[in-house]
Amino acid sequence: METTGGGILGKLGDKLLTLIGLALLILVGISLWRMGPDGRVALWNGIWRTAVWLALAATVPWISRLFITKVLEFGSNWPGVVLIGVVTLVDLIAGRLLMQGWPSGGWGWTLSLAALALAGAYNYLVTEYLAEQTGG
What we know:
Elements: H1 7-34, H2 37-59, H3 68-73, H4 78-99, H5 105-133
Helix pairs in contact: 2-4, 4-5
């Protein structure tokens, strides 16, 4: 027989998580309300620049579909490594241009490097998928 939920503790946990989420949402709303116009502009600029970078980072590796067969003809892994490196470098340059400078502070550098590492892993997975699709 299947049991659903987790009993009273599961329901209590769900309620608690819902209340925490609601409290965080209210705190974000209050922060935005108390923030000055310059802060709001900076926040929205950061949001749209991040969205543009995410869109670029998600689409750029798929361009390698045009020449993945040429890369596979070399018979070595080094051209694939160079391809992934170049695509990740394009992600880095796009991020740098969108941020209009280098990150400032430890958290800025940490988040930027983590985003670049995730983009590099995504680039690897996409090029590996494209190589499998072309028979490589």
